[in-house]
Write a structure and sequence with these properties.
This protein is an alpha/beta fold and 269 residues long. The protein has helices at 12-16, 45-56, 63-72, 80-90, 97-106, 126-139, 153-161, 201-223, 237-255, 260-263, and strands at 33-39, 59-62, 116-120, 145-150, 163-166, 172-174, 193-194, 228-232. The chain has ten helices and eight strands. α2 (45-56) crosses α9 (237-255), α4 packs across α5 (97-106) and α5 (97-106) packs parallel to α6.
């Protein structure tokens, strides 16, 4: 696989919408990777996405980053879909599939990034995966793999329930694996560290149950299309990353150096 170039894609078109243009986009790759990451809350998808994008040079397309960016922009240049999404988030409600889908559709150009993409946070349901399937097919694009990170439920509960978030800069710590230097105080800005409501053990259990119920059909959807790669996500982030790369290298070697249309697996209807 290719190593990451020195250029950094600022993902402006993804974060700010179709009216923005990215800068620092790496040169086009002869064989760009297009990946989707799946996994329950707390498995470390964001960390793995960052490691993957640095390794294969792809663009990290995170729906969570889109929402966080929108919150900090104070309503400037919002589309109707983004305004609706923020309205749901302010009420503490989940953003409906239809609105999330519209946000993705507004950013279709990002799926054509010449360095490839790592899609993180979407799709989360069978309906979303089917909609993405139709979009990719209409754009003449192919997925290379869908990586499903697996962690035992008990470990996920321990990971999330020990997490603490800075009220000021939103930095994340963990009581055991990444504690702050001073208890309850952020190392970066001195802000107070608190436990998010949805990181409490009882909330985590509900989130995991919801995830399992909504994604079981989604996982089967990609397994039947020969795209699913299961990766055990226990251990250090680096060890999980190495397992991921090993699995992707196998997928790449199986392609035998073929052209993109020959070696990528089409997302069939």
């Amino acid at each position: 696989m290719n190593s990451h170039s020195e250029d950094q894609n600022d993902r402006a078109a993804w974060l700010k919408g179709h009216s923005a243009q990215c800068s620092g986009v790496p040169e086009g790759r002869e064989r760009p990777w297009r990946l989707v990451l799946l996994g329950a809350p707390g498995v470390g998808k964001g960390t793995q996405a960052d490691l993957l994008t640095r390794r294969v040079g792809a663009c990290h397309l995170s729906t969570g980053d889109v929402f966080r960016e929108a919150k900090t922009r104070n309503g400037r240049e919002q589309t109707l879909a983004m305004a609706a999404a923020l309205n749901f988030m302010r009420r503490g409600a989940l953003v409906p599939d239809a609105i999330v889908w519209e946000l993705i559709r507004e950013r279709t150009s990002c799926l054509h990034c010449r360095s490839g993409f790592v899609l993180d946070g979407f799709p989360r349901t069978l309906a979303q995966s089917q909609a993405l399937n139709v979009l990719l097919e209409s754009e003449g694009l192919f997925l290379d793999a869908v990586i499903n990170y697996e962690v035992p439920v008990a470990e996920i509960v321990a990971r999330l329930s020990g997490r603490r978030t800075c009220e000021s800069c939103r930095a994340i710590f963990h009581l055991t694996s990444h504690p702050p230097l001073a208890e309850g105080i952020c190392d970066h800005c001195g802000g107070a560290l608190t436990q998010r409501e949805d990181d409490r053990p009882e909330s985590v259990a509900v989130r995991l149950e919801t995830y399992q119920r909504s994604t079981a059909p989604l996982i089967d959807f990609y397994r039947r299309r020969g795209l699913l790669i299961n990766v055990v996500a226990t251990g250090s982030p680096q060890s999980v990353f190495e397992r991921t790369i090993a699995a992707l290298e196998v997928r790449g070697k199986l392609a035998g150096g073929a052209s993109e249309s020959e070696c990528a697996v089409p997302v069939a209807p």
